[in-house]
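name: query_chain
kind: protein
chains: 1
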Amino acid sequence: MADSRPRLILASASPRRVDLLAQINIYPDDIVPAHVDEEPLKAELPSQLAARLAAEKARAVAGSHPGAIVIGADTVVALGRRILPKAEDAKTAEECLTMLAGRRHRVLGGVAIIDAGGKLHSRLVTTAVAFRNLDKGEIAAYVRSEEWQGKAGGYAVQGLAALYVRKIIGSYSNIVGLPLFETGSVLKGLGLLPTGAT
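structure:
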């Protein structure tokens, strides 16, 4: 990338998103976590929440970094219209896994990229994930692993929970935390990826 390009900022503290961007040879100049209220609004759908939070995170950081390109992202796990929380304690993780066991759920990935001119480019990606049945012992073992900490829906597909995923329809990287095809397409349009990269 040329030195004259705008600074690229990732508005997230997630090491998973940093690793995913590195996978497509994108290395942010700075990582600035956005602090926004992630509580759903009344009657807000999972897809609306993912898109709104991604945009709010990008705007929160872009406001203090004019002229930079800012990437905001959010991941929401949903069972129907029900939004599952980020697991911050073992009880929540156990409850999430119990609900997901033997069922299909959706992972909604919102991506919002604000270009150097302040224009917002948004993408929303849905991945369907089917879990096999889990017994109480398996759920307890996963909870003990603590891989669920801070994860939407109480699991990390790139870890031990891969043993529970029977089927994925859609983007795998979206489940991990950032849909790379869609993110890369926007960044390519902004001149941050070689034209043959996606």
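note: The first helix runs from residue 15 to 23.
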